[in-house]
Amino acid sequence: MSTHSHACRFTVRTLSDPHQRLLNRAEHVLIGLSPFNGYYKPHFVRELVTWAHHRFSRIDVFVPGWEAAHTLTGAGVSPREAVHRARRATKQLRNTAAGALLSCGESDPRLRVHTSTTLANRPAYARLHDRVRAQYVHDPAIRTACRETARAAVETLSAGEPSEAQIDLAVSYPLAELPLILDSPGIFGVESSVVIYHREMEPFTPLILGLVPTVRPVGGQGFAVVTSMPPPITARKPR
Q: What is the DSSP track for 127-140?
């Protein structure tokens, strides 16, 4: 791990002092990428991966899998079109992230780019995914957090307030993400890990901070909001 000029292009904000200490430890980072919102353009993904490479000892990247199509169907897109759009968008994110990791010296970058489908083969993820799905049925706090996250995702893709049926279709997306903010150290075989995203995942904040007693993050789990800084304004030289 080394310092690099890319670090000045991003601002980093954690949600608590323990998360800040995990960020300072810089053992492992999981970069969360999201399709459809226009934020993760190829040049931004490349810069983010490069920045993370110079700050953390190890990088993994998460890109949504089949659940991305469910979000589109929740927004009213036909299933066939939703699958097509989701495959195209997530493939671009995976390829861009893998290319950036390769440029950073990762010998087999595709082993560092994951979806919920590939992570389902990891017992730690599969067990926790089963657990949060069960808690979603029985725990009002988990259910509300997941449904509000799904609601916000559908709202960005459709006009008007989503119906409960639309949220039902899209809720697989937050359920697939939730294990990653609870135990990415166990899933990726490290002592500590920081999940980074471009904004605070507000419905999940109580879960991230360990305020929901039924499902708490492990001790080595951190979260940080990482956003790009605007380029400096260069003063014009007088003529």
A: HHHHHHHHHHHH-H
